[in-house]
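Give me structure tokens for this 242-residue protein.
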Amino acid sequence: MLHKTRGIVFKTTVYSESSVVAQIFTEKFGLQSYLVNGARKPKAKVRMNMIQPLHLLDMVVYHKPNGNIQRISELRNAPLLETIPYDLIKSSLVLFLNEVLYKVVRQHHDDVLLFEFIFQSIILLDKLENGLGNFHLWFLLHLSKYLGFYPERTNEHISAYFDLKNGVFTNLIPDHAYYLHGKLTSTFSEILIMNVDSMHLLKISSLNRKELVSKVLDYYRMHIDNFGEIHSHKIIEEVFNS
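Here you go.
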């Protein structure tokens, strides 16, 4: 049976001399693997540049509930990304966000709200002109809402610390090493209440941004099993410091 669904490309791997397997997070079926025949040929119907990381898709697919590799009937980029593929900063951010998403989005588990957040965030990034240096922090903190560990903000405005392990703002120094304090706590709080269009108003030094990204990744590591290490944020640091 054929199904129409939107999709977000996560990863492609070589399958044969001319074909690839694309791992695509779909609105209807969650994360699925699709065989794309002939994608590596010069005149392919579905070309490799159409299935790059975090490209957005309209798809018509065949779906077998217990199938390991699914098939695609039709595929097109919709909306077509206008700036991300050509902008060094945006493409570096996509590399980082894609690495995180590949670790947190579960196989074969549909989640319409999570899908919509990621889909719309990519569109926002593609259109964004200011505040690129803070986008990944905004994305990670708001993504946590859909993953089940969004910070508890009850004491947000009267607290000196944010306890990464327990996900709460507090005035008591936690009895472990995983917490934010001082400027990092206030910046963390500001990001939670800001929308992406105003992120350019948030001034963060390169050193504080680097430390905050590291702490937020610790936060993910504590709340997601087998999250492991992320490496591509080092590329972002180089891009923003160049």
